[in-house]
């Protein structure tokens, strides 16, 4: 509780009259000091009681429009203050926007004397992922002479989820499957490190295999056998052409495929399998890492996967019309938040900062090998040239160029490689089509037909990679339609 | 807060609903008390104080009223006449409180505050030199105000209950 300027003025007046009384030796003026002092004290008591009564009947609520949002989302937050009975005080309520959020304007509302309810709304941006609890709102009450600021209870929480793929679904026709590989048991004895068994020497065994300690202990010749170690080389082929940019920012086809590729890379690392990576842009191979083991190789593959961004986008981050694909690229145009687009926005030529950054971004668009057409097929050719036929080839792409996809997989099979195809269904990344359930359902069934065709091929496994919520919505629409047709 | 809520007067919004009859009672009591204390010139001073009260609020009226009383009693103060005039000013002090939600309690509180502070001021004026009497009076007002400030903090729950940890010696 603090006095306002008016209360200080009255106090100063009372003191001034007391000084005059002393200076002029006129105790009569002390009567004014006494009356003014009584006036102040009574107002002070009235204020304390008035504030206590107002707080008893006051309800303050901070109401965010949503309790769970994505990072960088903007939602309106409303501050409501309601009195059971109007008060004679002015009550200013200030909301407690969390530190991790940014409010476009002050979150506040004022109840003038006689008002019973008020509300204020502002837009709050949530750039930081996590669970954010609102600070307690404060009520500043004043009667013109005194003011007091009191915190009140209303602390909702908002959960901010980071941008990026959520609940990525990998499976067949809506059924989730695991793509994690177990250990590859060769079922054979041979050179290795893991002891398998101790057996008696039989003619034909090499003298090198004799376990001399066991022979001395058991008094007959014994041979120790070991488990044969196997490793399966894995080659990841990740398409990052312009068509893979379709989808909301941070949740594009490429983002979902990237997550899946990262999971496969982590699995390969755990099993110590040799892992390689070829990234394919619209015009050819953008980077190539041959299958190898070791933490450094896995790290560089991981880093490269995380750095991937769709090629062929123009400076604004939009898909150019000249990109040739079997089907038009649906979905919202990606926002210009990509590094190259940001660089172009730096007003290039004369800016030394932009000039300094340009080589780093320019390096990303360089192609190791260019192809005139069908870059994915060219990449598979490159990947399988001179490679072990046991190699597991994992192709991460979408369904926008079906002919090339068939051709690519046939080629890989012809070379004896086992193939895993991870396909991002275009229909699930086109937000404009999800508004029409029938059309989305038709498009998904077309995709499913393609996936099944691929899956039927010998030594080929085809899975869909999609956002689980959108896939569920389309599947539900498909089932509803089927039930309707049956009736 | 804007002055619109108080009509430009120095006053709490908790007591701004001034009714016409309480204003009339206060004005009549003030003019009558001043007139009884100082005659026709007292009536004039009372009217002037009442106008000031109406226009600028109670603190101005009390301050100027006392200055006018000082002029009226420039030749010497008659205790009974002074007490009569003070009753008029007390009416000015109490009249606005009739518009509060608990008028009797507010008026009783005012009378109690005036009695306590007046008693202290009177005792000080009688027994101490003028400057010490002034200091005692102002000090009493300040001390009471600080006490109410602490009371306000406690009653509004603004005092942290947690006691700081003490170290065992």
From TrEMBL, chain A:
The DUF58 domain, residue ranges: 197-314
Superkingdom in the source lineage: Archaea
InterPro entries membership: DUF58
Protein name as annotated: DUF58 domain-containing protein
Automatic annotation (TrEMBL), chain B:
Family annotation (InterPro entries): DUF8163
Keyword line: Membrane, Transmembrane, Transmembrane helix
UniProt domain DUF8163: residue ranges: 10-163
Superkingdom to which the source organism belongs: Archaea
Membrane-crossing segments per the record: 20-39, 51-74, 80-99, 106-125, 131-149
A Pfam family per the record: DUF8163
Protein name as annotated: DUF8163 domain-containing protein
Organism in which the protein naturally occurs: Natronococcus jeotgali DSM 18795
Lineage, opening ranks: Archaea, Methanobacteriati, Methanobacteriota, Stenosarchaea group, Halobacteria
């Amino acid at each position: 509780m603090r006095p306002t300027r008016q209360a200080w003025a009255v106090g100063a007046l009372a003191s001034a009259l007391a000084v005059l009384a002393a200076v002029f030796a006129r105790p009569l003026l002390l009567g004014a000091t006494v009356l003014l002092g009584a006036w102040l004290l009574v107002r002070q008591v009235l204020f304390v009681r008035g504030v206590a009564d107002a707080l008893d009947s006051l309800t303050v609520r901070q109401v965010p429009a949503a309790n769970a949002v994505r990072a960088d989302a903007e939602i309106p937050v409303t501050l409501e203050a309601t009195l059971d009975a109007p008060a004679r005080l002015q009550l200013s309520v200030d909301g407690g926007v969390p530190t991790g959020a940014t409010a476009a304007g002050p979150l506040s509302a004022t109840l003038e004397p006689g008002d019973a309810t008020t509300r204020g709304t502002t837009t709050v941006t949530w750039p930081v992922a996590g669970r954010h609890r609102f600070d307690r709102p404060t009520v500043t009450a004043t009667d013109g002479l005194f003011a007091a600021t009191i915190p009140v209870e209303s602390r909702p929480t908002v959960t901010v989820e980071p941008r990026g793929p959520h609940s990525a679904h990998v499976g067949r026709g809506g059924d989730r499957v695991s793509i994690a590989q177990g250990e590859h048991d060769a079922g054979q004895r041979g050179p290795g490190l893991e002891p398998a068994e101790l057996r008696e020497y039989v003619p034909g065994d090499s003298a090198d295999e004799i376990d001399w300690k066991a022979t001395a202990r058991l008094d007959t010749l014994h041979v120790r056998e070991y488990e044969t170690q196997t490793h399966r080389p894995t080659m990841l082929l990740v398409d990052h052409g312009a068509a893979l940019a379709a989808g909301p920012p941070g949740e594009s086809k490429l983002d979902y495929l990237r997550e899946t590729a990262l999971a496969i890379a982590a699995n390969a690392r755990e099993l110590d399998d040799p892992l390689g990576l070829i990234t394919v842009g619209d015009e050819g191979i953008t980077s190539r890492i041959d299958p190898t083991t070791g933490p450094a190789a896995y790290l560089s593959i991981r880093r490269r996967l995380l750095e991937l961004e769709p090629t062929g986008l123009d400076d604004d981050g939009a898909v150019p019309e000249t990109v040739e694909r079997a089907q038009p690229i649906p979905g919202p145009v990606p926002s210009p938040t990509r590094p190259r687009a940001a660089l172009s926005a730096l007003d290039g030529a004369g800016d030394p900062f932009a000039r300094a950054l340009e080589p780093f971004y320019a390096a990303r668009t360089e192609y190791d090998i260019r192809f005139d057409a069908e870059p994915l097929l060219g990449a598979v050719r490159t990947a399988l040239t001179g490679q072990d036929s046991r190699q597991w080839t994992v192709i991460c792409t979408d369904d926008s160029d079906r002919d090339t996809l068939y051709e690519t997989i046939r080629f890989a099979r012809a070379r004896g490689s086992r193939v895993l195809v991870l396909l991002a269904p275009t229909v699930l990344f086109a937000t404009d089509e999800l508004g029409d359930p029938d059309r989305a359902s038709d498009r998904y069934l077309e995709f499913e037909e393609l996936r099944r065709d691929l899956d039927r091929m010998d030594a080929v496994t085809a899975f869909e990679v999609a956002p689980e919520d959108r896939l569920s919505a389309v599947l539900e629409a498909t089932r509803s339609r089927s039930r309707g047709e049956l009736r | 807060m804007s002055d619109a809520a108080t009509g430009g007067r120095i006053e709490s919004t908790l007591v701004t609903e001034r009714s016409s009859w309480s204003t009339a009672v206060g004005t009549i009591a003030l003019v009558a008390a001043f007139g009884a204390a100082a005659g026709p010139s007292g009536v004039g001073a009372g009217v002037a104080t009442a106008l000031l009260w109406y226009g600028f609020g109670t603190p101005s009226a009390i301050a100027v009223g006392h200055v006018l009383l000082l002029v009226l009693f420039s030749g010497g103060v008659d205790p009974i006449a002074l007490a009569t005039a003070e009753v008029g000013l007390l009416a000015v002090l109490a009249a606005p409180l009739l518009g509060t939600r608990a008028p009797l309690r507010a008026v009783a509180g005012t009378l109690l505050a005036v009695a306590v502070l007046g008693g202290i001021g009177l005792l000080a004026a009688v027994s101490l030199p003028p400057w010490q009497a002034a200091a005692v009076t102002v000090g009493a007002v300040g001390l009471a105000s600080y006490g109410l400030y602490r009371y306000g903090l406690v009653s509004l729950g603004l005092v942290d209950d947690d006691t700081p940890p003490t170290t065992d010696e």
